[in-house]
Write the structure tokens for this entry.
Amino acid sequence: MKVKVATKILEANDRIALENRKVFDRAGVFVVNLMSGPGAGKTSLLEKTLSGRGDLRIGVIEGDIAGSDDAERIEKFGAPVVQINTGGACHLDANMISEVLGDLPMDAIDVLFIENVGNLVCPAEFKVGEDMKVMLLSIAEGHDKPLKYPLMFQESSVLILNKIDLAPYTDADIGKIKRDALSLNPGLQIFEVSCRTGEGISEWIGWLRKRSRTSS
Amino acid sequence: MHEASIAASLLEIVSGQCRKGGYSRVESINLKVGRASGIMKDALIFAFDAMKEDSPAKEALLHIEEVPVTGLCADCNSTFTTEQEYILSCPSCGGSSFRMTAGRELDIIDMEVS
């Protein structure tokens, strides 16, 4: 006997993501799903963003396969932080986020960063309840990345190019990264920053501040 | 890369339907998988076969229909289908104001049960 199923395989995840989103919306929290390959500088970007946050109240969910190093780095800034260990999984999913929502003081957070597992592929597939996906690429990773890993560039609203202080020491063609990223996703907002020197960070924070206010 | 997560969700949905409908055995499952979904057909079948043992789908075969990437160009108003996984410009006019209309599917269509 043939039975019609007509269901999206990721429907269960999308449903939980929507529930998470309702919790965030009720509390007026703007949520950023922060994604990149390992070592591009996600936690460094968060440290810089926390340093320059002013009165913007920032909370963080850290996702890693193992360890709590990242959460400890965030804690030093006095920001509420929860560490998730995926125990091998290559991405965060909506259910993992749902399980830690109770551990965060939602009423005391304006912007919540969900730092995904370092991986340029899988996190782009799974909604976690975010308002916006932001991806980070360090220029040292090479200018071939947009065309090699197109999905994340297509799914993100913002691309932050990190480590631009290394430009003179690499052969990476920043113009090509931007051109290819924009042809994959013409609406992409691009920032060039260096978490090491602080270059470009205030533009990013200023933009984030404005964007989070217009949404919540 | 995360075909195992997808296979686990698939088994969960199929097992749920079996519980609801009182079916004891799934013989086959028809899926539609878009070429730009990031999911490899062979890896998904491998993961599904490895995980299906303790479920009503333990003898089920996966039939996967691959859906090519299809787009609609706002510059030249053409609809196009391509064999590529990703497109950077409209194959007809080279413009970039196109949107993908198919190719990201990851859907269970139906299943044969007894």
Observations:
- The interface with chain A takes residues 1-2, 5-6, 9-10, 12-14, 17, 21, 23, 29, 31, 36, 38, 86, 88-89, 96-97, 106-114 of chain B (CB under 8 Å).
